[in-house]
Design brief:
This protein is α+β, with helices and mostly antiparallel strands. 40% of the residues lie in helices and 11% in strands. It is built from 21 helices and 20 strands. The strands form 7 sheets. Strands 3-6-9-8-7 form a 5-stranded mixed β-sheet, with helices on both faces. It has a 4-stranded antiparallel β-sheet with strand order 15-16-12-20, with helices on both faces. Strands 17-19-18 form a 3-stranded antiparallel β-sheet. Strand 1 and strand 2 form a beta hairpin. The C terminus is likely disordered.
């Protein structure tokens, strides 16, 4: 029988039980004889924030978040606070009067509620009702005191400027008067959103922000993003998908029409083409995924912490931009509920090892990964999934392939063709890199837990027994800390040598910079040490010829309001500058992808005679969780072979001296290609453009492989 305990250390109860039982039946054993490993990876879930000791007080909830001792508990507490605020908001939405179509249901869709978000939102003092804001504005408090003391716990510290939205699906009444035109349908829903926001402001004094896609509502310290849904949404999206698939692509065979979103009865043609509508805009699929994750998390207490560890692992290795959040949840769900001779993982460490093992050992190129926690698929249906996978793989290898086979093929009862979360990402190169990292980290972490832990216990265990359990715990604490440090570096330390160029980002320009990991596994710290130890020629050229200091408008503070602004400005002025769901990192990656990715490289691919067949110049890797404030760039070797230059990007091309010799090769298949001047990318000019694109966000750039090592 286990008594009451705090929520954060509950996963360590089995270790404490074993330690107590071992000491009771072997009285001569000293402290540290039995060492539990269930908490060795807890540091990966904590943020190395200088303001981590500050507390955020949830208005009216009586709960505190923050601090190094309970950051591991933040996801659970945040989910409970969000759920309570959402229940209250749902009652208010259903009781609204005067709407054209009444609200009949409110359903959450956020990963923060299912406790799998690597960065769960915390209650914000400015995200309150108008009455609370007005009452707080009338009160005069101490330094940095806004909203009547709600910021008292900050003591002049960081006040976040960007709020993570909590996605909520608001179901409204059905109606037969919706327009059939997609644009008119979207405008009509936007008008209903304006009416809903106005009703919330008048009836309950809630602060709202509206757009064409959603309505943001500030309530009880959180920003809820309301998406309206009616019975016509799915039908309209299915019609758009059918129209897109029925329209043949140029120089391609016509594709069969899709049977409908989801379900095993969908035709093979619906799997082979790109999805006409993104999964984020299909509410029923997101609702089904939310229910699946909550069901797995309810049956396995270690599931949610394992998902957060998986997010952190992908982020610290700069791979989180290649994996959708839902795809990571499905991978961990497969590790917990997949067919195996072993029982489901009982701890977060075992679950994380099982996740790495799944990534490293699953044959991604020959078999789909079927995620079916509730065992809805029969044996015949699983065989059908394998048959479709084989057909698509054979078609993708053919010369006239109508679609691309996803590198990570994940099937669910609602997504038999892997068309939602892994259709476009990760690519084959990113998946191969992830598999290699997973294999290496799994081997290192397993060796540490199985061998190094035993050696550490044997070396640290004293010959005399402890006088009390408290002294035993204090004696074993250094052993656990050392083991945690070694395990953290083995699994979460990034391999910077895998990249060619690293862009250091300004922490003030990132809304999640406060989620940075320990300096021991920080890529920014490693870059600083590398540049001090071994300066490189390319970085020196960029420093000498780089652009001037960016203007003031490009040096915004997005992580938190400056301390002077908190002290001098009122709550209304600060609230007007709150940004809901804004993150500049995806915009930076999109701009760099357009320039360096599949957009328009400086030269055409080698051996290509068509100027339209553009190949990527580089692959981009980043951490969307905020743990690593670095963007890694890996150049494509094929992009640096001499090839015909492009007229649109000749300013970043370097002509080859041996143009005539290379152009006269017999491999040239056309006179135009043979006469075209050959060039290679001009690295200095391209990197200057990269700096211009990242103006205000990119703080520094460093070449990992020094140019001084090249032969002269």
């Amino acid at each position: 029988v286990v008594g009451p305990a705090a929520r954060a250390p509950r996963h360590t109860i089995p270790d404490r039980v074993l330690e107590f039982a071992f000491a009771r039946h072997r009285p001569g054993s000293g402290p540290g004889t039995v060492l539990g490993c269930s908490s060795v990876l807890n540091a990966a879930l904590r943020a190395h924030d200088p303001h981590s000791s500050l507390m955020l007080l949830a208005p009216g909830m009586g709960e505190q978040l923050g601090g190094p001792e309970d950051t591991d508990n933040a996801a659970v507490t945040s989910a409970r606070l969000i759920d309570a605020a959402l229940v209250k908001l749902g009652k208010q939405l259903r009781s609204l009067e005067g709407l054209v179509l009444k609200v009949v249901g409110v359903q959450p869709q956020s990963s923060a509620i299912r406790q799998t978000s690597p960065c769960p939102p915390k209650p914000h003092p400015l995200a309150n009702t108008m009455a609370t804001a007005a009452g707080g504005a009338k009160k005069k408090g101490a330094k940095g005191d806004v909203n009547g003391g709600a910021l008292g716990g900050f003591d002049g510290g960081r006040l976040p400027r960007c709020l993570e939205p909590v996605d909520v699906l608001v179901q409204i009444e059905n109606s037969g008067r919706w327009p059939s035109d997609p644009q008119a349908f979207k405008k009509m829903k936007a008008a209903l959103g304006l009416q809903l926001a106005e009703a919330l402001e008048k009836s309950y004094g809630l602060i709202t922000q509206t757009s064409e896609d959603a309505v943001d509502v500030f309530a009880d310290g959180f920003a809820f993003r309301l998406t309206l849904y009616s019975g016509r949404d799915e039908a309209l999206m299915a019609r758009l998908a059918s129209d897109m698939l029925s329209r043949p692509a140029p120089n391609a065979a016509p594709l069969p029409a899709a049977a409908g979103p989801g379900g095993l009865n969908a035709g093979a043609g619906s799997d082979a083409a790109s999805p006409a509508v993104s999964p984020e805009s299909m509410p029923l699929i997101r609702n089904w995924h939310h229910g699946l994750v909550q069901a797995v998390g309810g049956a396995n207490p270690a599931y949610a912490p394992t998902v957060r560890l998986a997010h952190r692992w992908l982020g610290t290795h700069l791979l989180s931009n290649h994996f959708a959040e839902e795809a990571v949840e499905l991978l961990v769900a497969a590790a917990f509920t997949g067919p195996s001779v072993c029982p489901p993982p009982g701890s977060r460490v075992t679950g994380f090892l099982r996740f790495l093992q799944l990534l490293a050992r699953h044959p991604w190129g020959s078999r789909p990964l079927v995620v079916d926690p509730e065992r809805q698929l029969t044996s015949a249906q699983r065989n059908e999934l394998q048959r479709r996978f084989d057909e698509r793989r054979t078609a993708a290898l053919g010369p006239e392939s109508p679609g691309r086979l996803p590198a990570m093929y994940i099937c669910t009862p609602r997504d038999p063709g892997s068309s939602h979360w892994t259709h476009c990402r990760p690519g084959q190169d990113a998946l191969s890199h992830t598999v290699a990292l997973a294999r290496r980290c799994h081997a290192s972490l397993t060796a540490i837990l199985e061998h190094s832990a035993a050696q550490t216990v044997a070396a640290a265990a004293p010959s005399t027994p402890a006088s009390s359990p408290a002294s035993a715990a204090s004696a074993a604490a250094p052993v656990v800390q050392e083991l945690s440090r070694v395990a953290l570096e083995a699994a979460f330390k990034p391999r910077l040598e895998d990249f060619d160029l690293l862009l250091t980002l300004r922490p003030e320009a990132l809304p999640r910079a406060h989620n940075a990991l320990s300096p021991a596994v920080s890529a920014s710290s490693a870059m600083s040490r590398r540049r001090r130890r071994q300066p490189d020629t390319l970085s020196a050229v960029l420093d000498e010829e780089g652009p001037d200091k960016p203007p003031k408008r490009a040096r915004a503070f997005l992580d938190a309001f400056p301390e002077k602004a908190v002290e001098s400005r009122g709550p209304d002025a600060l609230r007007a500058e709150l940004l809901v769901g804004f993150d500049p990192l995806p915009h930076l990656l999109a701009a760099l992808e357009e320039r360096l990715g599949s957009g328009s490289p400086a030269v055409a691919p080698a051996g290509s005679t068509s100027m339209s067949s553009a190949g990527p110049l580089a692959a981009l890797c980043a951490d969307a969780t905020g743990g690593q404030q670095v963007v890694g760039i890996k150049w494509s070797p094929a992009a640096f072979l001499p090839a015909p230059s492009r007229a649109t990007s000749c300013h970043t091309a370097l002509p080859c001296a041996a143009t005539s010799l290379l152009a006269a090769t017999p491999s040239s298949s056309s006179a135009a290609a043979a006469a075209a001047p050959l060039a290679v990318p001009n690295m200095v000019q391209i990197l200057k453009e990269v700096q211009q694109i990242g103006e205000g966000i990119v703080d520094d750039s460093s070449a990992v492989r020094s140019c001084s090592k090249l032969p002269r």
